[in-house]
Amino acid sequence: MGQSIRDVMTSNPCTIDAEKSVAYAAKMMREEDVGLAPIVEGDKLIGMLTDRDIAVRVAAQGRDPDQVKVRDVASKRLITIDPQQDLDEALRIMAKHQVRRLPVVEEDGRLVGVVAQADIARKGDDKKTGRLVEEISESGGQMSSMEEGQFQPFQSRFEREQEGEQEGQPEVQPEEEGISRVRAASTRRRRRTTTTRKKAAGTRRKATTRKRAAGTRARKTTRRKTTGTRRKTTTTARKRSTAARKGARKRATTTRKRAAAGRKGGRKTARKRTTTARKRTTTARKRTTAARKRTTAARKRTTTSRKRAAAGRKGGRKTARKRTTGTARKRTTARRTTTRRKTTRAAAGRKGGRKTARRRTTRRKTT
Question: Which of 104-118, 194-208, 229-243 bottoms out in mean pLDDT, i.e. has the lowest?
């Protein structure tokens, strides 16, 4: 065909990690409108997940896509192609392994793109493309008999070429056997005349020509249908992708606006809450200050009461003392006065008695 795989492949394909869930992979394949998800570690290709793997190994077995990992259901065999090879080699590999998509891998195992049957149909020969569709559509191919298991290591281009040479050797034997049979048949004598041979050859040529024409028409019809379907699918995919992008942009814008509004509202609410808390704190402080003032006033009152009580007790003691002292003084004074009076009376009595005695003595002497 003259064109290399690099010219027709889809560069930078969507890849997926082996530890992701099958549900995540299915959503990604739906959004990207692809049927193949290469599994990579870094830039190295380690496996392939197709829509058929999801249908056969998950949906058909009733497994939960959210619980099953991509590593558990992905195809373990890696059928790749080098970007420098041409479309004929891609057709041969697809027909041999009955696959519609091939990952394009460099010598170091780095994934650079994916080439599909549709890419080859757009750029390739109609006959070869139609033959490829027929061979891929046949049942019992190698891809249908693959066993499930872990991923096999990546094979380089040199190893694949060696495998192709080893696998190609047994395929030559039927051709050699056929050639030997033709030669043996040509050496036999035939009873048919030259005219019969020519007529038979002409009939075969006509039949072959008719078959080829019918095949060409069928291939053209199939190609037209495939092209129309592919165009519709591409248009639908573009519309879906555009709608998805617009929806994603709208969602992102709405999310940003909500986040901004939420931040503003949160700030306002936080400010209000802070202001309210400050007011409550100020009120509590005022109440505490008032309570402290009340307590201080009560303490002052208590102190004043205690002082008054103490002063009252002291005054009572002084009054009692004064009263006791006055009474005692009065009693002493009365006693002294009484004593004085008695003494005065006694003295007066003694004086009177003396006077009387003197008088009597005088009288006696006079007598």
Answer: 194-208
CB atoms within 10 A of CB 106: 17
pLDDT digits (tens, 9 = 90+) for 114-163: 888 888 777 666 666 666 666 665 554 443 333 333 334 444 443 444 45
Q: How far apart are CA 343 and CA 328, in angstroms?
A: 22
Task: For domain 1-179, give the fold.
Answer: CBS-domain (3.10.580)
Residue 355 — pLDDT band, cuts 50, 70, 90?
A: confident
Q: Is residue 47 helix, strand or coil?
A: strand
User: Helix H segments across the chain?
Assistant: 5-8, 22-32, 51-54, 70-73, 87-97, 117-123, 126-137, 157-187, 194-366
In the chain, domain spans = 1-179
* 56-84 per-residue burial string, b: 16 or more CB within 10 A, e: under 16: ebbeeeeeebeebebbebbbeebbbbbbe
Q: Is the dihedral of CA 156, 161, 162, 167 positive or negative?
A: positive
Going by the DSSP 8-state scheme, the letter that residue 69 receives in this structure is B
Pull the structure tokens for residue 247. Answer: 């929806």
Distance CA 232, CA 230 (A): 5
Cβ-contact 161, 80 below 8 angstroms: no
Q: Are 46 and 74 in contact (CB under 8 A)?
A: no
- What does the alpha-carbon distance between residue 215 and residue 195 come to, in Å, rounded to a whole number? 30
CA distance 171 to 250: 59
Q: Where is average pLDDT lowest: 42-46, 117-121, 133-137, 265-269?
A: 133-137
pLDDT at 36 over 90: no
Q: Which of 29, 31, 24, 49 lies closest to 39 in space, CA to CA?
A: 49
For residue 85 the two structure tokens come to 């090879």
